[in-house]
Design a protein that fits this description.
With 70 residues, this protein is mostly helical. 83% of the residues lie in helices and 0% in strands. Helix 1 crosses helix 3, helix 3 packs across helix 5 and helix 4 runs antiparallel to helix 5. Keywords: Plasmid.
Length: 70
């Protein structure tokens, strides 16, 4: 499992979104990874899900970030 935020973010994305993000400039990848970490840390609903299934919470936060991006 990657340890840097961008690598962790890429790892939890759906395959088609992973390809799209991997093709972005590093700055954009870092911005999205930061938004993902913010989503994970700020949503109480995700905190509850994280207690039950950390991978599911990470995937849900990634989906939300990408949905907001368009």
């Amino acid at each position: 499992m990657p340890t840097d935020p961008v690598g962790r973010f890429l790892a939890v994305l759906e395959p088609h979104r992973r390809e799209a993000v991997a093709g972005m400039p590093r700055e954009e990848q870092e911005r999205l990874a930061a938004a993902w970490e913010e989503e994970l840390g700020s949503d109480d609903e995700l905190d509850t899900l994280d207690e039950l299934s950390p991978p599911a919470a990470e995937a849900e936060a990634a989906r939300r970030v990408m949905d907001r991006e368009g």
